[in-house]
Amino acid sequence: MTVSATAVGEPAGGRLPARLVMLMLTIALGSIMMQLDATMTNIAYDTLLEQFDSSLLTIQWVTTGYLLAMAAVMALSGWALERFGARKMWITCISLFLVGSVLCGFAWDVSSLIGFRVVQGLGGGMVLPLGMAILAQEAGPSRLGRVMGVMGVPSALGPVLGPVLGGLIVDDWNWRWIFFINIPVCLAAIAMAWRVMPTRTSPDAGRLDVLGLLLLSPACAVVVFGLTEASRYRSFADRHVALPLAAGTVLLVLFCLHALRVRDPILDLRLLKIRSFLSSSAVLFFASVALFGAVGVLPLYSQQVRGRSALEAGLLLVPQGLGMAVSLIAVGRLADRVTARVLVVGGLVLTGAGALVFTRLGAESSEALLSAALLVNGCGMGAVMVPAMAAAIRDVPAPMIPRASAANRIIMQIGSSFGAAVLLIVAQGRLDELIAAGRLTPDGLAGAYGRTFWWVLGFAAVSILLALLIPARAPRRDEAASGRPRSAESGPPRVSGHPDV
Fold first, then answer.
1. How confident is the model at residue 485 (pLDDT cuts 50, 70, 90)?
2. How many CB atoms lie within 10 A of CB 472?
């Protein structure tokens, strides 16, 4: 029997129930495994090139295939959670990821590795939106900020810790252990889920919107593919980029037309009428460029200008992870007492301050100064991610939370891919200018990467403007206690507390 975590009348700042803590740990364990796996593989590219005697054009599909598979199934997670319940879906997804990990570890050529990575992605794609929806349903609005901090950890730590852990495994063990290391973690996640995951299903799940799924899933996959190609070709104009982006846009338009005509679409666009969901999702989309800009550009600066190895470049990002960890601990508790707007704007200001230091990159820039800037940048990450993710679903009616969580993850996935593509294209443009002018010196290279961070500042500014649209009200404890919807004049109903099951 599963007991809901929401206690009627308990103050927002009270101690979290033990069962809710266990649920948070279970979801964090599965989620961070997905994020780390997505980034650890990149560090093994050189080894895989030698192992399989393949080209970089082929090897990059080891990551691209994984990301596309994840993007393709995200839209299905909301309906699947309603129809089959949290425990069944979580264990199914983790098990499929486990099977894919074992197969990847035993891959005999590059084609088999790519195919097995797709299996991994199909299992991992629903884990993050499922985890977000489960936590929101079980915690209720009075604890939503604190528990959503759990989901911010894997999303922000993965790109920082993944390359470091991957480098250690490749250097000291064997590239196959990048996948075999998932086995004990998956087994632990499955065992914990069996004990603490809720089992209830929704009587209003409805029939699967097959046409919507056939439009939205390929659209997400094709758009992510186009943005991935933009990162590789350093241009949005190249036909390898423009064609998939155009095809994905057409599919998205067709899905929107379809979703507005049917009663239960796979992703309900009527969510965009909820101000907090629309504004917070927009912030997360544009802020992803500012939040993760350093992760994509600084390793290139470290390797090309400072001559660092891939592992050393990854280790240089550790201060960012430490700053984010400190921020998540503090902001996770403040998010249930302070308005999301204040926290998000404050976090974006910190991120902008860190980026401002990076605009002055030189060949001999102080590594102590860069580490301090990364620490500040990490603090900004946590201050944005947690309250924005919580605010996006705080006003969503309880029955719509699973599909809202899926929509939020799709928006963040596309936003992250867009951000990485934009910054790499800008950096490549600066480098091309240096080559044309014959000034490809260490100082010239450093300056090119430094000027790229002015774009990070620009996106941070846009995100601040969008953050001002997030509702300024603080969470209301009486709603959390009573579970009663708010009046029509005060906006959409909040997530109500769930009775014990």
1. very low
2. 10
Nearest to 243 by CA among 253, 232, 230: 230
DSSP 458-486: HHHHHHHHHHTTS--PPPPHHHHHH-PPP
Residues 6+ apart with CB under 8 A from 435: none
For the record, the structure tokens of 397 come out as 């009616």
Instruction: Please return the burial class of 484, using the count of CB atoms within 10 Å of its CB with bins 0-12, 13-18 and 19+.
Output: exposed
Which two structure tokens, joined as six digits, stand for 456? 């990070």
Fold that domain 15-196 belongs to in CATH: Growth Hormone; Chain: A; (1.20.1250)
Classified by CATH at the fold level, domain 274-475+487-495 comes out as Growth Hormone; Chain: A; (1.20.1250)
The Cα–Cα gap between 445 and 129 comes to: 39
| 254-299 tens-digit pLDDT | 988 988 888 778 777 888 888 888 888 888 888 877 766 666 677 7
Virtual torsion, Cα 468, 473, 475, 480, nearest 10 deg: -130
Instruction: Return the amino acid letter for 405.
Output: S
CB atoms closer than 10 angstroms to residue 221: 23
HSE (side-chain half, CA atoms, 13 Å) at 51: 17
Rounded CA-CA distance 229/160 in Å is 22
Give 344 or 79, the one with higher predicted confidence. 344
Confidence grade of residue 483 (pLDDT, cut at 50, 70, 90): very low
- pLDDT confidence band for 6 (50 / 70 / 90): very low
**Cα–Cα distance list, 413 to 155, 233, 419 (Å):** 10, 20, 10
Which helix (H) or strand (E) covers residue 147, if one does? helix 144-172
Q: Within a 10 A sphere around the Cβ of 461, how many other Cβ atoms?
A: 14
User: In this structure, what token pair is assigned to residue 153?
Assistant: 């950890």
Helices first, then strands: H and E counts in the chain: 21, 0
Cα–Cα distance measured from residue 260 to residue 257, given in angstroms and rounded to the nearest whole number:
6
Q: Closest Cα partner for 144 from 501, 498, 460, 499?
A: 498
pTM over 0.85: no
Q: 249: number of CA atoms within 13 Å, CB side?
A: 8
Note the Cα 316 to chain centre separation in Å. 21
Burial group, residue 47, by CB count within 10 angstroms (0-12, 13-18, 19+):
middle
